[in-house]
Amino acid sequence: ASDSSLNEEDGLQVFLWWLLGIAALTFALLMSARMGIFQETLYQRFGKHSKEALFYNHALPLPGFLLLAPNIYQHAVLFSQSGEWDTGIPPLAPSRPLENPGRSFQIALAPGCRYVCIRGVFILTTECTSLTVTLVVTLRKFLSLIFSILYFHNPFTAWHWLGTALVFLGTLLYTEVWNSLGPFLRNRPKQE
């Protein structure tokens, strides 16, 4: 909206898309919380089997990727022919990605890292409540965002500071730090 070339109608359209994005994120968060509660119920009823849950959560959607097969193939071809990433960051070497062992190693490493992360989340779901799991995953996303901002040298805006404050406030409220600090603060000797 700060761009002078945007008229009032374009500004409204941008705002509506922003609202749609916020609504989609809110919906995804609510569905994620509902799925966590559903997993808790299943674990109580049938036992805690994190490997089985991990398998079914990832195996059942696989046939859906057949609908995207042409698009996946097209992007694999484009990737193998490109010399740069779409992010504007220069490539590791001015060659094709599959000829560059460093980039190919990064691409091969990504699924392994994701597997370790998601496996940890599924193990955590068997040991903790869904609210704790949601908190841990939110903190992990927050740390990923901070790492991304630092790594790609993006600006840390006032909205980022607000989000940071809300994440830490929510964490402190959930972990009940205030309650555990209460007796400590009450029993402190008074200074004269």
From TrEMBL:
The chain crosses the membrane at residues 15-33, 158-178. Pfam families: UAA. Keywords: Membrane, Sugar transport, Transmembrane, Transmembrane helix, Transport. It is a multi-pass membrane protein. Its main location: membrane. GO terms for molecular function: UDP-N-acetylglucosamine transmembrane transporter activity; UDP-xylose transmembrane transporter activity. It comes from the Eukaryota. SUPFAM superfamilies: Multidrug resistance efflux transporter EmrE. It is found in: Endomembrane system. GO terms for cellular component: endoplasmic reticulum membrane; Golgi membrane. PANTHER family: NUCLEOTIDE SUGAR TRANSPORTER SLC35B4 (PTHR10778:SF4), SOLUTE CARRIER FAMILY 35 MEMBER B (PTHR10778). Belongs to the nucleotide-sugar transporter family. SLC35B subfamily. This is Solute carrier family 35 member B4. The lineage of its organism: Eukaryota, Metazoa, Chordata, Craniata, Vertebrata.
